[in-house]
Specification:
Distance between the termini: 44 Å
Strand content: under 5%
Number of strands: 0
Largest sheet: none
Order of helices and strands: HHHHHHH
Length: 180
């Protein structure tokens, strides 16, 4: 199932100078675990985490670490929301409430949006809406392209019709193009 989430790309390749975002996922998780703490370890202040990273040979700033942490947590939450949405959609499909691919995508998007709004994650919601707008724009462009292809095919038929006079051909082409 190709869902809206696959087109969302919230995890697009970060800028080359985004040191923390370019680390392997395991190292990123280790940084978050160090900063936030785990069941077996205490949380650390951001400045302590910056010093810990510096000792490990990773140069970053306090602001860079804070931004990285927010980005990482948002990505994790979006992945959890995606999994929840897809699981709910799968259940709806099994019960026969969702029958088409379009219904499946719309339901997943609605559920994902609800989860995002419930958390008051405006940036996540804006991201999803942007993807929806791009998808709608792409579908519109595809429809326009198909319409133009049909018009071109009909125009070629008219041009190749030996029974029509040049005036009749011109009149018919204007009708096909919607100029009359």
């Amino acid at each position: 199932m190709r869902t809206i989430f696959e087109r969302m790309k919230p995890f697009k390749k970060p800028y080359a100078h985004a040191v923390l975002k370019n680390l392997p996922e395991a190292k990123q998780q280790e940084i978050i675990d160090y900063a936030n703490g785990t069941e077996t370890s205490q949380p650390h202040k951001m400045i302590e985490t910056v010093e810990w990273l510096k000792a490990a040979g990773i140069e970053t700033s306090y602001t860079g670490l804070v931004n990285f942490r927010q980005w990482f947590m948002r990505c994790q939450q979006m992945l959890a929301d995606e999994a929840n949405s897809l699981q709910t959609v799968q259940l709806c499909k099994e019960r026969g409430w969702i029958k088409t691919r379009e219904e499946e995508e719309e339901a997943a998007l609605i559920i994902f949006n609800r989860l995002t709004l419930d958390r008051e994650d405006i940036r996540g919601w804006v991201l999803v809406q942007g993807v929806s707008l791009r998808r709608d724009r792409q579908e519109l462009e595809e429809r326009k392209f198909k319409l133009m292809q049909k018009r071109e095919d009909k125009t070629k038929e008219v041009v190749q019709d030996v029974k029509m006079t040049p005036e009749e051909k011109e009149e018919r082409i204007r009708q096909i193009m919607g100029l009359e």
